[in-house]
Write a structure and sequence with these properties.
This protein has no helices and 10 strands. With about 100 residues, the protein is an all-beta fold. The protein has a single domain, classed as Thrombin, subunit H (Beta Barrel), CATH 2.40.10.
Length: about 100
């Protein structure tokens, strides 16, 4: 189970026994994260307000797989449907497939 803070800290918990596996800052600088993290295809997607998407492996060990830029501010939580990720920035709707 994953949760994120507005200050850009991702927390991972073992839901079966209730212990925290890790608590890790997503960016070295103090970036803001309004959108909730989402999970799919073995990954957790964390979208920052400045439009940075940090992709983390869905496991009990913290591992950043990618850092991607949307090119515009993003406050909305992304959506997943049929293998496509949807990101709504201030001015665009972006669809990203596999």
């Amino acid at each position: 189970m994953y949760s994120g803070t507005n200050a850009g800290v991702l927390k991972c918990y073992d839901a079966q026994i209730g212990t925290r596996c890790y608590q890790q800052r997503l960016t070295p600088e103090s970036a803001a994260f309004t959108a909730s993290p989402i999970a799919g295809d073995g990954k957790v997607y964390c979208t920052g307000e400045e439009g940075d998407v940090i992709v983390v492996r869905a496991s009990q060990t913290f591992e950043v797989l990618a850092r991607n830029r949307l090119g515009a501010p993003c406050l909305a939580t992304p959506a997943i449907s049929e293998g496509t990720l949807f990101f709504r920035t201030r001015s665009h709707l972006l669809a990203v497939t596999g």
